[in-house]
Design brief:
357 residues, alpha+beta, 3 domains, 5-stranded mixed sheet, 3-stranded antiparallel sheet
Length: 357
């Protein structure tokens, strides 16, 4: 059922169950947030999304407040904007730094963007800082730089709600709040699958892409190119944005609007891209010669040698001596041809796919 409410003097329609923030965003109203991720359950922790609600004694968090018919909402009054600036000043005062490289993650610049929008210089409020970086975590993928953490818990929630891993959680309160694994150990000893979801939702870069940061000294923020493509690893078809500098891949961002993944990737899609520009990557077929060494050859020579080997094994050992494993990177047409090659060509059903591994 459709209802009506008023936002900043304009009557808008909404459906039962929608929040004020969802409705406002649909009508191009800019309401700042730091703890909000549209893929997650609303949390209402940062309070930056507060709005004035006519009849309410205090401002309300728009991300957790459900709309009701007849509501009158004001999203950006002078009082509300002053509240937001003060909140941002307190958040910024706790962090070691705000300006971070976009190589850290998809959302890593959100705090810096809001600081610039509200003209927060970070000197109005001073005091204790929060978060202790986990410098001893030697995993190759995720940097745990908690001196940049603002306790928005987006990382914890995406791990639990989207991945179902519950690999990280929250310990303590106030300035002693810390994101941790079970028994405060290393990520590789936890339930973490290194999917990178926590990296890409973090609005400050507290959780960052270690592999991408290897290129930070050679990449200026304004020289990164971003190219939309499809992950090559399996048949799901996850959309990704490839980050490149001078045609060299330096990182991967999941596409938040990807129809198949909506911002999610597995460890392979997120981190396994080094093969593209690896110096050992084969650029021409190799055939082992009579001297036992591999030599460059033409495709015709390589295919003839492979066919000869198949025929020899089939003749000497029978059809069940041949087993096919299709590549998860192959398109559906290639997978179809592969199963035809094994089933029709050799009369056996011994075929599988590496995506199951």
């Amino acid at each position: 059922m459709t209802h009506k409410m008023e936002i900043d003097g304009v009557e808008v329609a909404f459906s039962e169950g929608e929040t004020i923030l969802e409705i406002a965003q649909r009508h191009q109203k800019e309401i700042p947030t730091l703890c909000y991720d549209p893929r997650l359950e609303s949390f209402g922790g940062c309070r930056l999304c507060i709005v004035e609600l006519e009849g309410a004694r205090n401002p309300v968090a728009s991300c957790t407040t459900k709309a009701t018919a007849g509501m009158v909402v004001r999203t950006a009054t002078d009082t509300i904007e002053a509240y937001r600036k003060t909140l941002l000043e307190m958040v910024v005062s706790e962090n070691r730094e705000v300006d971070v490289s976009p190589l850290r993650g998809y959302a890593s610049g959100e705090l810096a963007d809001l600081r610039d929008k509200y003209g927060v210089n970070g000197t109005s409020i001073t005091g204790a800082t929060s978060g202790t970086s986990k410098t001893d975590d030697d995993n190759p993928f995720i940097l745990r730089d908690y001196e940049l953490c603002i306790s928005c818990y987006r990382c914890v929630r995406v791990c639990a709600e989207q991945e179902g891993d519950h690999a990280i959680n929250v310990m303590n309160r106030g300035f002693h709040t810390q994101i941790m694994t079970e028994f405060d150990g290393l990520l590789k000893d936890s339930a973490c699958t290194f999917c990178g979801q926590c990296i890409q939702t973090c609005p400050t870069g507290a959780l960052a892409d270690k592999k991408a940061l290897r290129a930070i000294d050679e990449v200026a923020d304004d020289t990164l190119d971003k190219t939309r493509t499809i992950c090559p690893y399996c048949g799901v078809g996850c959309s990704v944005d490839v980050l490149t500098k001078n045609e060299k891949i330096v990182g991967i961002h999941p596409a938040m609007d990807g129809p198949a993944n909506q911002g999610a990737l597995c460890v392979k899609g997120q981190f396994a891209y080094d093969f593209v520009q690896h110096p050992d990557r084969l650029k021409t077929p190799l055939i082992r010669g009579e001297d036992g060494e591999l030599h460059e050859a033409s495709w015709e020579e390589a295919l003839d040698r492979a066919a000869e080997g198949f025929h020899k094994v089939h003749a000497e050992h029978g059809r069940h001596s041949i087993y096919g494993i299709a590549s998860g990177r192959a398109p559906s047409e290639a997978a179809y041809l592969m199963q035809k090659f094994i089933r029709v060509g050799f009369g056996t059903n011994y075929i599988d796919n590496c995506s199951r591994a």
